[in-house]
């Protein structure tokens, strides 16, 4: 249900903006890439949102935010395999350090009973999907405006999830009980759809073309900081010393793993895209 509302709500929020910009003629270009767009929808929204929504049922928000910071680590590996970005000694050390931090932090939480192995695996799968989707956008959606990419992929994922979400309804209840959701829940869902999905994804797709895939993924450096902060302020979660140390280790590994990543437009990076007419 959460994934369906996020994706379809995000698409509906962006649709008027797309109409205002006169972007409907770009759907002709998008139709030629419908298979790739659906692949991006699966990797950037559908699978990650399902994984994260399920993992959030048992993992603390602070720990989830730390695990989310592994996206650049996966990005470095995907870039090495897919685009043959150089992976020298420093980047290899960074990858090893980052994943070691994830394993140590996860092992501690698993031992204390604060996390389950399945929940941790779901978050890691989500971050891998994010990394794959970034490179798919950069490599295969040449000439498709970012707003069209974002709206199309969110709509595809949302429509795909609508049936299962309506059938499932609330846990243990028929679909008709959607009407029983409290106003607080709807406000939270709309916030996820509008701010954290619609506008955030459009901004991120613009970032990919401006600075390249590897560097764009590095925005996840900020997720642990805000995730632990909001978890402490709004959910009453504690910020332990091990969480802070684990964050430092993962971010250090992520920083090293992205050293030497080619910027957008360099000879080692894929051909830069033209997502928007105003993009330089």
TrEMBL record:
Family from the record: Belongs to the EamA transporter family.
Keywords: Membrane, Transmembrane, Transmembrane helix
Segments passing through the bilayer: 6-24, 36-56, 62-83, 92-111, 117-137, 149-168, 180-204, 216-233, 239-256
Entries under Pfam families matching the protein: EamA (PF00892)
Name of the protein in its database record: EamA family transporter
Cell compartments where the protein resides: Membrane
Recorded superkingdom: Bacteria
Lineage of source species: Bacteria, Pseudomonadati, Pseudomonadota, Betaproteobacteria, Burkholderiales
Primary location class: membrane
Membrane topology field: Multi-pass membrane protein
Stretches assigned to the EamA domain: 2-106, 118-258
One GO location term (cellular component): membrane
Disordered: region residues: 260-280
Organism: Aquabacterium olei
